[in-house]
């Protein structure tokens, strides 16, 4: 019996084992998206589609634990869901309380400090959890070929982590960048960082230049990131500078990052002053089954994916909505709140409902109100229903449905795909979210849009748009009064 001996050195054997491991390693795609459902879910749909199409990749998705409902859908697409404990939004009322406070008040000063401290603690914990997750995902692998991090505009942690782990960073956004640099930004940047300003101005074509900075990258240079980059990530406090000398990395030119917008160029054209690596890719519609709050409806639509949505009926629990849509008279007018309730912009639900009641009384139209599960509004609806006149009925709470105002306002606290609903509506009134805007365009119905990031109460905003809608529908202009 002969024995075969390996005469190779131990170093050579280890090197061969590492080479074999690198050959078997799957490239990593890490998606990061923070914010409300409208901010996160289109990117989630992109991640799921990427995982389904590019099966060679190991795909993970980092977002708020509040979006835990995505985990089951991700599991079916082989996407690893990684929850982060931070909340999707900080309620606007907290910001308003701070801005309305008097600097001379000791209580206001303490309130301001408490809010700032809480916000800073949330940011620090979110960054800590993101770093820990990225370390688990990328590990200590030297080979990063094919790896990338894809972020939305509210997950800028991903840009710095991509620099740390030396992988590409891609920006995926369902809408145009929602913020712009302060008017004094360029002047201050040039004054404080003249060499870095020159570095960007002289950037060769295809590399990061001043257009990238002005379009979306300027928040990366704000002071809030410097200490985290320097103390925790051990990077330079300012991107694109040397950690020792703080001078621009003249010998290194980073490729201009790919920025993918999830809307059609026929809706928003890409102007010439945008960076060259910005592309509009068409709307990113969510899978129909993702958009139901009812499990039976989810299964019905997922099992009948080849049937047009108009031909698929809702489950018995939600038949009241379908009956309302199919009833006599004109198609209903849709009013949707999306996330503006949870963001703290709906300060007076009762006044908001009073506005809708006044419009209903002045028109022959019926309305559908999607509350998005905002509890103060749902509570106001239940109160009105419980105290309604005998000829006003309402459904049981477990159906997610309530009728108000002589059964002409259908209030719904669950979720139904807009692509199923909007073709059955006359008009859509909503807060201009990417998904609702795309669905109304796809349905070919008029829509009245408003920005949810407004400084006055939403019931006042809706008072304005419904009065204009009333003028459009009836030729009458009615002054709609509201109270605080």
Automatic annotation (TrEMBL):
Any Pfam family matching the protein: EryCIII-like_C
Annotated ranges, domain Erythromycin biosynthesis protein CIII-like C-terminal: 414-449
Biased amino acid composition, Basic and acidic residues: 8-21
Segments for region (Disordered): 1-21
GO terms assigned for molecular function: glycosyltransferase activity
Protein name: Sterol 3-beta-glucosyltransferase
Species name: Rhynchospora pubera
High-level lineage: Eukaryota, Viridiplantae, Streptophyta, Embryophyta, Tracheophyta
